[in-house]
Design a protein that fits this description.
By secondary structure, the chain is an all-alpha fold. It has two domains: about 40 residues, no CATH class; about 35 residues, no CATH class. It is built from three helices and no strands. The longest helix is centred in the first third of the chain and has 14 residues. It is globular and about 35 Å long. The mean pLDDT is about 95.
Length: about 80
């Protein structure tokens, strides 16, 4: 079976629209939600700053790895 090609420009736009939609329409940062609204959304999804996993990170900090750690924490949130 052939691997499907991903249109990353389209995926980025879909991510932007999803983020705006799920931050109650915040699009103040050049069409993207502001940091406050996006962090609030992540908190509602399960990214809890009081959880010990929130403070785990690589040294030096790797931004892509931080995103993955956030996803892992959100995945197990109740």
């Amino acid at each position: 079976m052939a691997k499907a090609k991903i249109n990353y420009k389209k995926a980025k736009e879909e991510l932007r629209k999803w983020a705006v939609k799920n931050t109650t329409g915040c699009n103040i940062q050049d069409g993207w939600p502001c940091g406050t609204c996006f962090i609030h959304l992540l908190g509602k999804l399960g990214l809890d700053a009081k959880d010990a996993r929130y403070y785990e990170h690589n040294s030096p900090v790797d931004r892509a790895n931080e995103v993955w750690r956030a996803i892992l924490q959100i995945r197990v949130a109740k």
